[in-house]
Design brief:
Blueprint lengths: L9 H13 L7 E4 L10 H11 L4 E4 L2 H9 L7 E3 L7 H10 L5 H13 L6 E5 L8 H14 L4 E5 L5 H9 L5 E5 L3 H9 L3 E3 L7 H8 L3 E4 L17 E4 L3 H12 L2 H14 L5 H15 L13
Parallel strand pairs: 1-2, 2-3, 4-5, 4-7, 5-6, 7-8, 8-9
Helix pairs in contact: 4-5, 4-8, 4-9, 6-10, 9-11
Length: 309
């Protein structure tokens, strides 16, 4: 069951589980979720209620290590938690990106055409990939692009996405001399091409599964220590596979500019992204989920590889 107070189906199932325990055959109820509320403030009463509900579950499938740590701190047994490392299927994305970097392939030719179309300069190209809405802080993103371009001639920001703030992006892109390139929503092979021609991923607002995309595309995320990131923000390590700046425009612009002026440092971050792409996959997530299910049912885990919990 989803770990949510408003999920009314949960309560009768938990009651049934409690009653069945007295008869010696309790049907287990497992929760799936973040472990704690990440993306918005909650009241103390809401937090206590969620903790009380969660502790009544027989197992918990947590997105990340941070969510699992929160649960154990609130009294949920650590040996009944599986960390699944929430992800999406990025296998094809990573493979397409690799081909775009390999001379002689169709994807490599298409990447070259894309660079020519938008006058992209190697070492001076950033990518935004995701929804164009309030949590992504689009005004912050666009102003940072303007200021970075003032420091770095040839800088371009490719914006791939759609949403309520798309008009802001379209307006910025229409200004004479603007560094912003509005591309609309991108999927599949098109996304891989955008990653292949980009050096970094700018994401000053909410970081979630874009962290996994950044690994597959080898475009390290530059973000801020904004308090409302999603759980997958935990996959980022400052100075290793990403940069996390103080939450100010000056700090953000300075960090991006300095990184694009330091190709060796950028290469180190990109290499770490390539390595981490193999650790955060939907296949690995499925294996961890399988392990947890087998343990929940008291079944040997030989059918799946065993992981720490």
């Amino acid at each position: 069951m989803e770990q949510a107070l408003q999920n009314l189906d949960t309560y009768p199932l938990l009651l049934r589980q409690q009653i069945a325990r007295f008869a010696g055959h309790a049907p287990p109820v497992a929760f799936w979720g973040h472990g704690r509320t990440y993306t918005k403030p909650v009241t103390r009463i809401e937090s206590l209620a969620k903790d009380a509900l969660t502790r009544r579950g027989a197992w918990f499938f947590a997105y990340t290590e941070g969510g699992a740590a929160h649960l154990t701190a609130r009294g949920f047994p650590a040996d009944r938690i599986t960390v699944v490392r929430n992800s999406v299927d990025t296998t094809a994305l990573a493979e397409d990106c690799e081909r775009a970097e390999e001379a002689g392939t169709r994807e490599h030719v298409e990447a070259a055409l894309l660079r020519k179309q938008f006058d992209l300069v190697p070492g001076r190209t950033a990518l935004f990939l995701g929804g164009l809405d309030a949590p992504k802080r689009i005004p912050f993103l666009l102003e940072s692009a303007r200021q970075i371009a003032a420091e770095l001639p040839g800088f371009r920001l490719l914006v791939a996405g759609d949403g309520a703030d798309r008009l802001l992006v379209d307006d910025a892109a229409s200004q004479p001399g603007s560094p912003v390139v509005a591309l609309g929503r991108a999927t599949g092979a098109r996304t891989a091409l955008l990653g292949a021609v980009s050096d970094v991923m700018l994401m000053p607002g909410r970081v979630g599964l874009c962290a996994v995309d950044s690994f597959a595309l080898r475009t390290p995320v530059v973000t801020t220590d904004w308090p409302w990131h999603a759980p997958e923000f935990e996959y980022l390590t400052h100075g290793r596979n990403s940069l996390i700046t103080p939450d100010s425009l000056d700090a953000y612009v300075g960090a991006v500019t300095a990184l694009l002026n330091a190709p060796r440092r950028l290469h180190v971050l990109q290499a770490a992204c390539r390595k981490d792409a193999a650790a955060y996959t939907v296949e690995e997530m499925a294996r961890r989920f399988c392990d947890g299910l087998l343990q929940l049912m008291g079944t040997p885990t030989s059918a799946c590889s065993v992981h720490d919990h």
